[in-house]
Amino acid sequence: MTSVTSAAAMKLLDVRLKHAGAIISSAIGEFTPDCAGTQEIACLKAGGTIDLYRIVVAAPPDDDDDDEEEEESTTRLQLVSRVETRSTLRSLRALRLSGSKRDVLAVGCDSGAFSVLDFASPDKHRQPATLHCPAFGKPGVRRDTPGQYLAADPRGRACMIASVEKRKLVYVVHRDAGGKVTLASPLEAHRPRTIVFDCVGVDNGYDNPIFAALEAQYEEYEDVVARERARKEVESGNGERAGKDEGDVPIGRPGDPFVKQLAYYELDLGLNHVSRRWAATAHRTAGCLAAVPGGADGPSGVLVGGEDYIEYLHEGMAAPAVPGEARGTAAPRRMMCAIPRRELHPPTKGVLITSIAVLKQKRGKFFALAQSELGDVYKVTLQLAKDDRSTVTGMTICLLDTLPVGNGLNVSKLALLFVPAEFGDHGLYQFDAIDIEEDAVQCTSGETLRALVQSGRGETEFYSAPATAAAVAPTFRPATLRNLHKVFGLDSLAPATGVLAGELAGSEVSPQLYAFALRVLRHGRRVAELAVSELPGVPGAVFHVRDHDHVGKNGRQRDRYIVVSFADATLVLSVGDAIEEAGSESGFLLTEPTLACAALGTLGTLGGGGPSSSSGGIVQVHPGGVRHIQSGAVAQWHVPGIKKIEVASANESQILVALAGGELVYFERDPLSGNLTEAATRDVGADVCALDVGPVPHGKSRSLFAAVGCRDSTVRLLSLAPGSLLEQKGSMALGTARPHAAALSAVDAAEGSGGLALTVGLDDGSALAAGVDPITGSIATSPARRFLGARPVAVSRITLNGKPSTLLLSSRPWIGRPGGKATPLSYAPLDHGCAFSSGAVGEGLVATAGNTLRILSVEEEGSGDDGIEDDEAFHSHHVGLRYTPRQMCLLSAKGGESRRKVVLAIVESDANDLGEEEKKAMGFDAAGRAKAGAARKAKGGDEDMDMDVDSDEEEKKDGDDEEDDEEDDDDATRQTPIRGPVPAAPGRWGSCVRLVDPASGCTTLDVLELNRNEAALCCAAVRFHSRGGESLLAVGTVTGMTMHPLAFRESHVALYRVVNGERLQLLHRTRVEDGPVLALVHFQGRLLVGVGATLRLYEMGKRQLLKKCELRGLPGTVKTLQAAGDRAFAGDMLRSVSFIRYDASANRLVLVARDRAARPVACQELLDANTVAVGDKFGNVSVLRLPKGADAGAVDVTGARALWDSAREDATPQLEALCTYHVGEVVTSMTRASLVAGGAESLVYVTVTGRVGALVPLASREDVEFYTALEGQLRAESPRATGRDPRAYRSYYAPSRHVIDGDLCDAYAKLPYEAKQRIAEQLERSVGEVTKKLEDTRNALL
Q1: Under the phi-then-psi rule, with left for phi > 0, alpha for psi from -120 to 50, and beta for the rest, what region is 763?
Q2: Residue 270, Cβ neighbours under 10 Å: how many?
Q3: DSSP labels for 590-643?
Q4: What value, to the nearest 5°, has the Cα angle with vertex 644 and ends 643 and 645?
Q5: How many helices (H) and strands (E) does the chain have?
Q6: Distance between the two ends of the chain, CA-based, in angstroms?
């Protein structure tokens, strides 16, 4: 096994195993030419990826069964395109030009350029064409670099790109004479000393485009200095100022000069000029904008979301009228409406609106959805004057439902809502009701204005106090979903705060990854076990027999029999509503083993388009002959002489058997009589050990080729065409390995002229995949080979997701695709298997393991379209936690009967949260069982549920029946996470320590809730020598900690022991001084603790920990700790890593070396005694090594070294940086692991946004030269969707060094063939060799 720190390994390859799941921003539209009738969602993901998903509503299978219950259609998101930009993505908008039927995507990023992407490309990878990428500044993310905000004119005439401060650029969008989208030169709309919070394009019909910006202007620095100087002069004198200047009030206090405005910027298309047209004061906490439909569709204007209120603003709007008889001194001028609040929310804290989306309906109707920081979603409706639709007379806000907090709201015209969650899985929700004003908790602008007038206070004072909003707004208790239900979810590991690797389940072949979400990642596709039954013995094979007499309207065939072959008998099971044993009435010979069987006949098409079948009976091949069962009659062909059939294969019309000695006998079914006839024989000259006649192509009557594997280590392809029966057309030598099984599968089963793929399972545990010419039968010269396990590989044809595949069985099951791609199944080893289909299982597997028969279902492979790589290497199992996991460690505990077991200890904590007991005392229900009022279903709701934006298609009617409230509560699709009550004061924490058993599906064994506002932030397993080596759990806690500024009341280290492997017992708690406890590690039979800027070594005492020695004066706060022998490696929050050595003779800790670069360490992993890998908070990964001989002078045994000499900064040796690489996401944890048994060891890491990657050491100079040259070529050839230079991106904070960009190398597969050929010529290889090299590297890792 290659070590991560070997000599050649300092050249690393970054391989992405799972894409980041966190979505930064999203937009809905119609981007591809073939998305008619539906919509697509473009998502900006962390790590520089743009994913385009299509909303697919699949109708239920149209079978001919008379089911009483009608199946519902399924809705999912299908990945259409994935674009790797290798840049920091910031914003995006869908842009549709007037008269166009499709949208283009405008993207803002850190490249210093503005990109417009068009997804009209017809290639299978659907890579977008970059229509324009005009540069406007230097690359990077700065406060004055445009790209943070992006707004588009609703009519598609212009777009604005803005920075956080000062700069705004407006691009005019139009078409040239050829109809292509073009951008004019940018027009400046800068405003100095201005902070921008959001911007949006205002819908004002076809008048000049207007963009609304939410901004605040700060003072000149010279004015602040002059006022401060004047204040000091007054304070130094004896007199006092006559008055108090408003500018003297600090920002954030009542009466401060801070003013936030909503400004209109108008683009004059005639003068080609941008001007600041209008501005109005907005709420001081406003943070998001949404444009209201204008022109003929509505009143135009902007909805402004802030804290506790949503405001409507527009140029020239009239002052709102106060309803009722309310009178007061205040004269309202603003249209404000308070949002409903939760009952348990503190009245002194506001509720911030984080996103708003306005939905345009048919017939001039519209409404808005707004989401708060707590996840509550509100429906916002504007009341318009009857005689003038351009005048807004009122606003109503009512509670819709509670969803996970998202980074935006995207509503489809199919009445679907997509919420990209900030953390956790993203959800696609179906509307059950939208016209909910009568039953929902609501507040109106009239009620808010009435309260303002009655208070007698000014608008600014009234709207700035959260207590007034709490008095006005109605309250509610969050509950399960009432008006929505979840129909699909996108997995996301975010936030992944740590990772562990190991085979902890106890019954699986490959190790699992435990990401601290908490999710258990397993390599392979998820398998559902539908049925398991015992067999009378250990079978030797299993087959399925199709039922040609009953074919569904959609052409899907079901199985009639399952045939299980034993050493001396055959078991036949009938498939129906239940699987039952079929006796002799099946016609099978039950006293002999079965070598092959199949249903004879053809599946055709009727004139009306429906399927038709021609049943030809069933054929059974056993060692003594071939048995044909048809219409109750049995015809038998016996083997001549004393020979026996050793191998056989059959399809719908052809049977091929191999006798001992290598003689082949070929049979065909006569299409007229239906009988079997012997057509040809041949002696291949070697014993046959694998045989397959191949599938019958769609619309054909026979397979043209058969694959024959012989014991002379060859595989031959024989012709089955009339006139050249059993003639050899191709052959392939296997070297020293012998074939164990073979299968021919169609590359494209929908076309009769599709290609063929040959898959051969070898007895050494490998599988070969090669292409076959469908005309000549020649086999490709460079087959793809992959090691699958320690057992010989069995191969059988199956169908998954309507596509031909192969089932590969070795020491673990795999699914093979044409082209050599193989994906493992996350399931126990199987002995034999084949395809299976029934009324309940559309596409499944029937397999044997030992003496059990199992029916399995393989879940769909991601959400990818054809040609799109969405075959994620892992699938995840989510484990529910109470708080955010901070750290995890393994403990070896003593179970029952002196048995040792491994358990996981997890420390969880959340800031600004309450403990579980406090929540229960307040009456909080996390399950949301409180009745929130029954949602009124849409009745005849075409008008209400119609959310068509641009299409004239009729909206799909919602025909679901109403369900009772109790049924809704029990429906899993209506469960939603509900955030607990927010503490009224800062510095509140909720925390617990959890014990998990990984061998039983990560079930929770014990949970200890920490009270007294105590937060557990770190943990470690420690074995004290004085305790006899018992594994104890050390937990570092901090009480009453606040972040800004960092402060706390006290810190403790608690020791727990695991009792009987199932519960935690507190031994004692030790109070520590000098800082928070953020890192713990076992160190030579003691506990090493990082306390602020101090390292302390503790021994265990009876009542508390005993301090043995300490090292003070570290650069900052110790964040991470690892130990190896007498060395410790301390990672600092701001000042990188320090190497420390323990001098046992003097009982002291000595600083050996430190890093010269100031890296804010987020995680670290020890590679060897001298080398450590570090991940920092800026998304960089570095490998640092201690110079040779650096620790020789660390321990001064002579005493001759002067005290002042040892304290000098330049006297401390500096660490060498071997590797530096910018991942682009904050790496939160790393671990050394081998992901498959016998695979290469690599450095596996996870990021806070959910990415899983591995840094793979390159084992040879040839690999280093290949990947270095390939990366250099792809830097020039790979398309740059956002204009970002790949090398500059990977060198964001420091020059990239000794790490190959694996994402860039993977882009080779998506290039046009001409570009591939040019690169391959530069590498002095063929295109196939380059592709195979890339696949081999990934296969060695997985």
Answers
A1: alpha
A2: 6
A3: TTS--SEEEEEEEEEE-TTS-EEEEEEEEEEEETTEEEEEETTEEEEEEPSTT-
A4: 135
A5: 13, 89
A6: 14
Pairing relationship of beta strands 1299-1301 and 12-18 according to DSSP bridges: parallel
**Euclidean distance between CA atoms 1320 and 1337, whole angstroms:** 17
Amino acid at 357: A
**What is the distance between the alpha carbons of residues 611 and 603, in angstroms, rounded to a whole number?**
7
Contact 1016, 908 (CB under 8 A): yes
Per-residue CA distances from 1122 to 496, 1080, 1141, 1154, 1215 (Å): 20, 8, 12, 15, 16
Look at residue 932 in the predicted model and tell me its pLDDT. Answer: 42
> Quick one: pLDDT at residue 199?
96
Closest CA to 1266 of 1314, 1331, 1183, 1313: 1331
Q: Which residues contact 1287 (CB under 8 A, 6 or more apart)?
A: 1275, 1296
According to DSSP, residue 792 is labeled P
In degrees, rounded to 5, the angle at the alpha carbon of residue 62 between the alpha carbons of residues 60 and 65 is 110
- Calculate the CA dihedral of residues 484, 489, 491, 497 and round it to 10 degrees: 10
- List residues bridging with 601 in a β-sheet: 615
Least confident of 126-135, 259-268, 614-623, 1125-1134: 614-623
Helix (H, G, I), strand (E, B) or coil at 178: coil
* CA 666 from centre of chain: 51
**CB-based burial label for 1071 (10 Å; 0-12, 13-18, 19+):** exposed
Describe the strand order of the beta sheet including 654-659 as a list of residue ranges: 645-650, 654-659, 663-669, 676-683
Report the C-alpha gap between 810 and 839 in whole angstroms.
Answer: 29
Question: Residue 637 — very low, low, confident or very high, per pLDDT cuts 50/70/90?
Answer: very high
Rounded to whole angstroms, the Cα distance separating 184 from 182 reads 7
- Cα separation, 1169 vs 1171, in Å, equals 6
Q: What is the C-alpha to C-alpha distance for residues 520 and 1162, in angstroms, rounded to an integer?
A: 22
Q: Which residue has the tokens 């070294």?
A: 1201
C-alpha to C-alpha distance for 1073 and 1107, rounded to whole angstroms: 12
| Rounded Cα–Cα distance for residues 814 and 806 (Å) | 8
Q: How far apart are CA 1115 and CA 1093, in angstroms?
A: 7
For residue 14, which phi and psi values (nearest 5 degrees)?
Answer: -85, 115
SS (H, E, C) 923-967: CCCCCCCCCCCCCCCCCCCHHHHCCCCCCCCCCCCCCCCCCCHHH
d(CA 189, CA 203): 19
User: Residue 1074 region, left (φ>0) first, then alpha (ψ -120 to 50), else beta?
Assistant: left
3-class secondary-structure state, position 1177: coil
Query: pLDDT tens digits, residue range 405-437?
Result: 999 999 998 899 999 999 999 999 999 999 898
Cβ–Cβ contacts within 10 Å for residue 1097, how many? 22
pLDDT one-digit tens code per residue, 809-865: 998 899 987 666 788 898 889 999 999 998 888 889 999 999 999 999 988 655 555
Cα radius of gyration rounded to whole Å, the chain: 35
What is the 8-class DSSP label of residue 406? B
pTM, whole model, 2 decimals? 0.90
Q: Which of 118, 133, 100, 294 is nearest to 201 (CA)?
A: 294
b/e map 505-529, b = 16+ CB within 10 Å: beebbbbbbbbbbbbbbbbbbbbee
Q: How many whole angstroms separate alpha carbon 264 and alpha carbon 151?
A: 13
Token pair 């599906």 in the structure block, residue:
1001
CB atoms < 10 A from the CB of 534, how many?
9
State the Cα–Cα distance between residues 449 and 323, nearest whole angstrom: 8
